[in-house]
Amino acid sequence: MDTADYYRQLGLLSGASLEAVKASYRRLARLYHPDLNSDHLAREKFIAVTEAYKFLLNIAKPEAESFSPSEPQQTVVSQVPFQPLRVKVTRQEPALKRNPQLSELEQKLKQNSYRELQQLLKYQRFPRAIALIEGLAERIPQDVEIRQWQAITYQRFGRALIKDKKLEKARIYLKKALKTDPHNRALWIEVERDFRQLEKVY
Prior knowledge:
Elements: H1 3-9, H2 18-32, H3 40-57, H4 104-122, H5 126-139, H6 144-163, H7 167-180, H8 185-201
């Protein structure tokens, strides 16, 4: 299992901050702890998220040095549409999983798009985030990690739509998330929770 897989176990994008790792683990541990959930699959999930958490504790960087879409930050960013955002960090940011099939130009595009996607998700600018990630996925269709970002973006938008009581649209985007990355177990768990919330709102 590589580093990106450990982040996915916690439902996070690669390079998420230490604070985001801790927050996600606390939430998932409460959900799957054997003392609180008697389902045997929950026990397996608890073991998996605990293993991921222990691994990421040693490599995840504090929020000031990392990018995390799930944790609010007070970073000032450019508002120029569809341009890579320039964000200052104190140390070199974590490298994304390198795809040897990508050219240097594609790798740079991926890195810049990742930064911008993090900021768009952080500020809940979902239509722009979706336009960005769909354009990137069309430009670099062979990259598995980009497809995972696309699915996560759909899921986050679906969750926001549930809060806004736009239930049919939420259902569409949650289904798109599963269709985009059908083998991501962490994503399935999050989408199942969203569907349960959607049914409560109905």
